[in-house]
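My current task is to audit a protein record that another person submitted. My question to you is simply how this chain folds and whether the tokens agree. This is what I was given:
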Amino acid sequence: MVHVYNCHPFSSQQIVQVEQEPGLVCCGGGALFLVATGGCKVEAYSVEREGCPLICRFATMGTVKSIQHSKIGDYLVTIEEKNSATYLRAYTNWRYQAEDKARVGVRLLGHLLRGASVRGGVQMEIIEIPLSERPVAVACCCITGDLLVGCENTLVLFTLRRQNQQTLQNQSQQILQSTWPNTQQSSSQSQGQTSTSNQNVSILDFERSVILHLPKIKAKRVALCGGYVAVQAELEVLVLKLDASFEPKTQEESSETARDHLEDQADFLLLPRHQELLGDRAKDCDIPVSIEKTGLEDRGQYTLSYVLFRRFTPDFFQGCSVEETQLHSLQLCPLFTSKQSVSQEEPACVFCFFSLPTAGYLYSLKGGVELLSAYQYPEKVLEAVLADHLLHVITKSALQCFTVRCAALAARIEDPYIDTTMKACPPCSLEVCALRMQLFIGLRSVCVHGRHVILLSTADTETPEESERATQRRGLELKEHTMLTGIFLAVGIDPATTPALESLLSRPFLSRKWTISSPKETRTVGHGWNIYVVDTVSPLTLYQEMVEYSQKYAETNPQAQSLRHLLSEAHLLLRASLLQTSGQRQNTEGEPALSPETDTGGPSEKQTDREELEEALRQNCAQLGDCFSRGSQKDCHLALPYYRMSALSVTEVIARNRPLPSSPHSYGPGFLFYLKHYLLEEAEQSLSQEEADEVIDIFSQSEPSQLVSVCASPPMVNISPERTLRILRRLEDTAGVSVPLTITMATMMLLMDDVAQYTQLMERHAEMLLVYGFIEEPRLLLHGGGGGQHTHVCPTVLTRELAKSQPGLLVAGMVALHENNKVQLEQADHVFKELGCENCLQVDFWEAMLMASSQDAVIQELLFRLSSVYIDRLTITSSDTHSNHLHTRSRRKSLKSADDLINSCSHYGALYPWLTVLSPAHTTSSQHQEALYKLQSLLCGPSLSVGSVGPLMERLSEETLWGFSLHLLCATRRGQYGRSIEKLLDRCPQAIIAYANHQLQDKNMVLWWQKLLPELCNRTRAAADNGILLAALKETLVVVAMEMSPAEFLELIPDDGTASYFLPHLLTCSQKHLVA
């Protein structure tokens, strides 16, 4: 389906003043090229200047049958005929003919001009390009400047080469010096006469790179763009991708060149079946392609892949012949995005367009082949041209424009956020529309350059192609009539005597070139012809007209599909313009230098144009957001990205979506979807009280179930608590009691400073149920979050109240939010710091997290943090200078004591028995004792790595007994038992037996007699009256006697020992041995 809108894409037109009737027209490089009918002269006119003045004219070497211009290299290529022979020629430096420089150089492909012609300055050159077959069509690549030539069954690719003129002159100088030594002086003099600007001009040449053999398709038109090769026959289109690989590779040549076209069937019409093969399926077509590489300098290999194949069945209708149902207007168009660099030759998108007289087809080739648009023409189209913003088509009497979908695809390639909740763009499948038609008489040809549409009209004349086809058709019809008449006469029937047979034989049956239309009457040949340059309006002007046109739909039916479609067309028009302005640096690469009059504006003016386009795009997004906000449920989600792209504030969006007086309680689903996402996604902008109350009214009328989430949203901080509380109570009456609703109502009470009612509401539910309520709606406790660990979060009013009145509930809620991935650890730390509880509730939160978490990385982080905190507390409490600071920081008692943590958390281990000897209770303050026990418990537990807290432990002195106990714990955890025994005997020998009984077990049992017994013997020998050491020695001997044999025990007794002291232990050892 094609929508039709009465918009005006054309602004003005002018007639080019030419002397002779033009036969061929093409444009490029700011110029219009005309070839007179049957003539051998090319005239170039400037389409960028008022009145299209003549740039230059120059003669060709033959009658021009086809002409093309290349943007890269600024050269012309022609197919010419002379003396019944066909030639392919390229014309370079043609602009210098405007300076009355009659000198023209003619050379063969690959043979650069040298000698005097080069040293004399820049001149126009005609390059003869020899071919083994007659050329039928030519195409130039707008990215590389390469040349593709289509012959009947082959395609020849020529690579554009550039060579600096200074290099050529040096080479020529060397040749002259080696050949004629006496000419060195004259050559240097002539070289000095050459201007510096001429020396910097590049000389163009071509190199034959590759030949493609297509034995089963007869090329009528060809196209080339960035490695994509397209060939069009009468009813077939084939697109190939040609890639150059520089790795040596054996190229398999196809030897199959058999033709299916039998000679005896040449006069019959074979109707092919319709076929469309996209992507990898295109290789299944019945058209083999073989590669013949001919490049001399390129050592790489070419690989070929099929991209697209389309075959049509002839569509004959009244008044049309076979020739008039053929394909035409083949094009390959690249599109760059703003993210591509200047030197990047690979376009982001490549599009292929071709057309039948009744329908046109636009395909996207990169990133998956797909049909973007199918154009159904209202009448027979003679020619079509795909431009940046529009598709221009001509009939015999009109020029018409259609919209295109190239920008929709390019925008998605450029911006990955399109088709998300962040950004949107109309789909590539959006139905196309036709704009206003411009009437002309006798249109024959159309071409486009920028915003200029060039038309050739020849009223009441017949083109040379039509004349040739008519002559061939009449000859074939005569041949058929004669043959059939002979057949009837051979069987004895004279058709002349039977009118019915005579009428039947007047129609062509056997000829392949047949028609069902009546022959055209002979017309008097006229002489009316014109060249029109029609200027299209700027995209911004066309956009503004589309917006004005859309107001008609908005006034009658704001939800009309046509309104949405027209605004989507305007959106794509603006996107295409933005892509073009950002990609102008790619387009200008290789363009010839234009005159100052053709410069449309400096950088500042272009920047202003872009800003105007961006502002228009924002306005369009707001209008599209309005459409989708009131639209159906199917597309209502698109209101969110369009409103975001419009840069409207939520206040402005609310104002645009207030219900009409006719429907006072109706809000569109798209608007509600936008509003919910705005409130859910932690917007920083706060609504005023009036706006917040209006939002509450909107949801109370449309979606009451969302009221709790709405009230908890950060933008709603200025909400009226009394008014909202009444609405929430009505909701509770209708929907029933729920924990999140109760907490929300309690928050409203806090905002009203009604602590008693707040307490009553919070006591409705147990603490565990309240925690579940926080999980269901985390924003009751926190504003922010949800965007990663670096997202800023802050506490709510309820959180601050819980920190004062119910710290345990706050800690439990924060732990639950963390375990349910509602908040990150760093975000929770930030909340406690904002509450001023970083040394009390924050530590309680870490301890609770250590009990609840199962993530090893989080556990290790928490163990390190808690160890650091405990060490800080021990350091501070041990200093008298911090007594006041200590009093301030320790006002609140920890939620969990050391015993609670030991009993409920596996990471806290039970205290070793010998620690009670080293740090007895009630020797320090309760805060100090609590921190000491918790740190000792962590060191006694299985999870804390001693190596991680070793540097922190250095802050604690061993002078105090509790400090010594911590260092001794670390040494023991490291396995330094011998050193620990020595230090313990030095500092606190009364704890040695308790230490040995707990630590010297299993594999460490040998330390009783290898380390502890010798140490005690030595120390008691030095201090015989030390009762503590003697008691420890006695306990040690009891353990050793139970573990060793009598012989081993005797060896351990010191030589100077008292026999009566060791004899009882030896007797015990012997009795144990006998029993065993």
Remarks:
- The two ends are 104 Å apart (CA to CA).
- The mean pLDDT is 82.
- The chain is about 40% helix and 20% strand.
